[in-house]
Amino acid sequence: xxxxxxxxxxxxxxxxxxxxxxxxxxxxxxxxxxxxxxxxxxxxxxxxxxxxxxxxxxxxxxxxxxxxxxxxxxxxxxxxxxxxxxxxxxxxxxxxxxxxxxxxxxxxxxxxxxxxxxxxxxxxxxxxxxxxxxxxxxxxxxxxxxxxxxxxxxxxxxxxxxxxxxxxxxxxxxxxxxxxxxxxxxxxxxxxxxxxxxxxxxxxxxxxxxxxxxxxxxxxxxxxxxxxxxxxxxxxxxxxxxxxxxxxxxxxxxxxxxxxxxxxxxxxxxxxxxxxxxxxxxxxxxxxxxxxxxxxxxxxxxxxxxxxxxxxxxxxxxxxxxxxxxxxxxxxxxxxxxxxxxxxxxxxxxxxxxxxxxxxxxxxxxx
Length: 367
Description:
The chain is 34% helix and 20% strand. With 367 residues, it is α/β, with parallel strands linked by helices.
């Protein structure tokens, strides 16, 4: 039985909702901006930190709202210290993982810090090579629980005079099956009077939920869109990604094409290279042929991101060798499709793409 929290999470509220609470306490409306500024600019996460507020108001905040639903329980660092992962225990006993990836840049430029957040506890889609899919679906996260993951690392980086430069919604879960809460979290973090995180520094990754893609298209957001494709024909994609039976590749690519035409924005296709499965020259040529759809006015408005498969406990497939990954990339490039072979990050702490899973479930998977 799920334990319901006895107080709402303050990060689930937008500034107008905070204002409603203040009005019910007979507080002046300008206090809402002070609270908002404290939460998203000063990154305060305890009522006593709001020393610019009257004591009674701080007491009311303490009484009626929770400032955290997430408790850091396990923290792991990769050997090269460039990737960090935290398992957060949620208020109901469930857990999610969040990842910070650091990137060195050329001298004179600031460091790049990407936070990968989760949107669900587990995932219902069951992609066979993904650890999150192997654990099944538990529940959606609220917008505030997503925001709290981001703000945790924002505070952490501030201690080193650094900041988050990118947010990828690619952790545990399928974002477009929790669409409203995901967009609410992004809108809140994008608010120019608060955290003020630019829309183009967000990337959402979906496995191909067509209604979500079409809704996203109609809203003309500036957020980057990535689609996990992983196969160029239905026969293979059905085996790797069961939801392909509902949203087959032809319909998916048509929805993606409409997105590009409607928004004028480039789309990214993600591809986990599995040795002997989807890394063949045949699959590469099929993919290149399908993606000619995105060549518009002599410009190809798509990008292919390939990464050698990260290992998970319940899938026997292995990552492609580097030589074959480069062959795959070369086929794409010869067809004027920009393709990047991504460097795998945090594999030694199971923080790579497709490896995130609640720790207690990991223990069960190892039995």
